[in-house]
Design a protein that fits this description.
Structural class: alpha/beta
Strand content: 5-15%
Low-confidence stretches: none
Distance between the termini: 62 Å
Number of helices: 15
CATH superfamily of the largest domain: Type I PLP-dependent aspartate aminotransferase-like (Major domain)
Strand order of the largest sheet: 1-7-6-5-4-2-3
Helix content: 40-55%
CATH topology of the largest domain: Aspartate Aminotransferase, domain 2
Radius of gyration: 21 Å
Number of domains: 2
Shape: globular
């Protein structure tokens, strides 16, 4: 009897999901670095384009290597379908464009990555889509923001950069009661620690650039959801607008998926130790980490996340103190990326959220003293020593 990959443990899915070997019997997945495909006859080409015969047509429509990545990530997420994109931002962009049209209304959590806010505030209005920002932790705010033309909700949970948590199931119920779809950016939690679709979300998006690659190599993104929604809202949009993932990048991301579970669990353990060290230091006014009991939404985290993740944020009181901290680091890199095997820290107000107006940054509590840190796979003792020394200098 053939094994059903849906019955596998998550670790097995991450290593073997979607596997499709060529007649050569390769162990490592084949890299099909090709733009197009040949047909045995004109009739075969006709049947391929009509959909009567399965198979690949053009890299923008699909590729064998990319398909393995999509099927593997869908298995890990528990989704019917995954569609890969060239970057995390292309995934967010396409996720929204597939659900919205001129005259529609979007409700979004106020705490968003800077580029996501630009899409919501600057890009979508050019196409006649209005948006309302809400405090994502306030269920009444979501309800009150709904209009007759509301078609989509967008939320990051945990949110960038201060790790705000949204009750995904409760917000999904509000969205569905309004006839809207809920899109969740799950990049900080990863599919290892949170399953938004199982909680009621309709669409999940990832920047595969982060934990899925995990080693600072390539860009990539993904959109996941139920088969009918993914077909109706995204199949033609992705085929014809062209945000296709490179097959080489798909191959690299496949290799990342094989160790995703191991990496993020160890990073979470390291992050917990670093967060405790920061929390105990006199220079830190506040530390936020999803694995700490003093997180503002600790109760929600207990209900929908199975791990704290590898990102923490802490307030050092001023930009000058935050910069002194960053400049004093000797092991941790100053970088705006996250999810990497190497630990990184950044000053969000002048990097990731620089494009967000100050008044809007203050609405989410992002003052100039905050540092966001992505904890990697170095020795936890070395990281604690480096961070503690830098805090002394702050």
């Amino acid at each position: 009897m053939a094994e059903d990959p849906r019955d596998w443990e998550e670790a097995t899915r991450a290593v073997r999901g979607g596997m499709a070997r060529t007649p050569y019997g390769e162990i490592s997945e084949a890299l099909f670095l090709t733009q197009s495909f040949a047909y045995d006859s004109a009739g075969a080409a006709d049947r391929r384009f009509s959909g009567d015969d399965p198979g690949f047509i053009y890299q923008r429509f699909g590729n064998p290597t990319t398909q393995i990545f999509e099927e593997r990530l869908a298995l890990i997420e528990g989704a019917d379908v995954c569609r890969a994109t060239a970057s995390g931002m292309s995934a967010v962009h396409m996720a929204l464009m597939g659900l919205l049209k001129a005259g529609d209304h979007l409700v979004a959590g106020r705490a968003l990555f800077g580029s996501c806010r630009w899409i919501v505030s600057e890009w979508l209005p050019r196409f006649g889509v209005e948006a309302t920002y809400v405090d994502a932790t306030d269920l009444e705010a979501w309800k009150n923001a709904v209009r007759p033309n509301t078609k989509a909700f967008l939320v990051e949970s945990p949110a960038n950069p201060l790790l705000e948590i949204t009750a995904i199931g409760a917000v999904a119920e509000i969205a569905h009661a309004a006839g809207a779809r809920l899109v969740v950016d799950n990049v900080f939690a990863t599919p290892i620690f949170q399953k938004p679709l199982a909680l009621g979300a309709d669409v999940v998006v990832y920047s595969a650039t982060k934990h899925i690659d995990g080693q600072g190599r390539v860009l990539g993104g993904a959109i996941l959801g139920a088969e009918q929604l993914m077909t109706e809202s995204y199949k033609d949009l992705l085929r014809h607008t062209g945000p296709a993932l490179s097959p080489f990048n798909a191959w690299v991301l496949l290799k990342g998926l094989e160790t995703l579970d191991l990496r993020v669990r160890q990073q979470s353990l390291n992050a917990a130790r670093v967060a405790d060290a920061v929390g105990a230091h006199a220079k830190a006014r506040k530390v936020i980490y999803c694995g700490r009991p003093d997180h503002p939404q600790a109760g929600i985290i207990a209900n929908q996340m199975t791990g704290g993740g590898n990102v923490l944020a802490f307030d050092l009181g001023s930009q000058a103190a935050a910069w002194r901290f960053l400049d004093a680091l000797q092991i941790v890199d100053i970088s705006n990326n996250l999810g990497d095997a190497k630990s990184m820290a950044t000053h969000p107000a002048t990097t990731t959220h620089r494009s967000v107006p100050e008044a809007e940054r203050l609405q989410i509590g992002l003052t100039d003293g905050w540092v966001r840190m992505s904890v990697g796979l170095e020795g936890a003792g070395d990281l604690v020593r480096d961070v503690s020394r830098a805090l002394d200098a702050a």
